[in-house]
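Students often ask why we bother predicting the structure of a whole assembly rather than each chain alone. The short answer is interfaces. A chain on its own may look different once its partners are present, and contacts between molecules only exist in the joint model. In this exercise we take three input lines together and write out one structure for the complete complex. Read the inputs first and try to guess which parts will touch.
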Amino acid sequence: MSAEDQLRALGLELPSPPKPVASYVPAVQSGDLLFLSGILPMRDGKPAWTGKLGRELTVEQGAEAARLACLNALAVIKAHLGSLDRVARVVRLGGHVASAEGFTQQPAVINGASDLLVAVFGEAGRHARLALGAFELPLNAAIELELIVAVTSAARP
Amino acid sequence: MSAEDQLRALGLELPSPPKPVASYVPAVQSGDLLFLSGILPMRDGKPAWTGKLGRELTVEQGAEAARLACLNALAVIKAHLGSLDRVARVVRLGGHVASAEGFTQQPAVINGASDLLVAVFGEAGRHARLALGAFELPLNAAIELELIVAVTSAARP
Amino acid sequence: MSAEDQLRALGLELPSPPKPVASYVPAVQSGDLLFLSGILPMRDGKPAWTGKLGRELTVEQGAEAARLACLNALAVIKAHLGSLDRVARVVRLGGHVASAEGFTQQPAVINGASDLLVAVFGEAGRHARLALGAFELPLNAAIELELIVAVTSAARP
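Now the answer. The structure tokens for the assembled complex follow.
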């Protein structure tokens, strides 16, 4: 099943892609690699999840925030490529988790994004991954994701 | 106007590129991509801006620090490629902002670097971007930048 | 001397590569670039070095942790490529150092990894590098590394 079909089968709707707010753009492609800008868990133009893991938010809430940020990332990819089916491989996901002192379960939080990538792209969604605890994030967001995907020139069958 | 011409038109002078101090080098090219080492806001061999945003430094000072770090990055690129005109595209900028607790305006700080890239490279300077709040940075620097640029084999006209 | 020979000459034994524990994989190759997942200083399935630099750990201990994490990275590369001799160039090393407030010697800590890369790969081991102070890291690890290497299709002689 194609990634676009899979998205529909999962009943997922992509949000509007976040708008560029400065001298940067949501994504830049160089060769086969598409580099995304940092992605927050945005809903209706503002972060839906703020605060820190281990203080304001539980691991489950953090994973939900990571999943929402990942949906925003998919929206950016689709806006840039026209279709998610042009993703050949998810190469690398970086997950920055706003963390209170002593919180060390960043991987469980970022699984919310990793699992969504595999649900949508199947084997092509398995990625190299970095999970880090951040001290502060823009707009007090709970999560910020970075993403690199490899792109095919033609759509996957 | 070429990037080198634009730099002159802006009246900007590049600092001496920071020297490698260990087993690493200022930049490594692989294929068309040039990966830079982390860049601090260096002047005369030491960080010109130290301390944390939201405590020792204002957003305006942070943006100035980001701009200075970006000038150091341009110096590294020029030392490596011979001319800034060999930059085909600024691909990705990562900005790490030393942040006091509760400081969440990292994007406004990193704009100091983003705006300079667009001033120098025009449309080719628009990049994917990540802004993060760091707990501590090397040498107590206020800012650390990471940068990936795409390189042309011949100079742009 | 090849990287594999050099490893033997240094008397170094690679640990078992860390196992994937979720929807992500230890490394993804795209074109000539191999992107590794975040690497902790693992020994026997758990982090051998925990806590923060500038509080529980000295710079020397941190450099030892960075060296151990780097050995884990080499194990991942070898498991993926079959031989370290297929590494054409170490492109970029990112080093995240769990830091107590006021600790700013991250570069000296990450030298433990950088020096090992040059000892094993020689000139091809010289890399672009980023050193950052992290607030919290997964499993309370003292160090997390990220790594990108360029790969040759045939083994280096």
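Check your guess against this: The first helix of chain A runs from residue 3 to 9.
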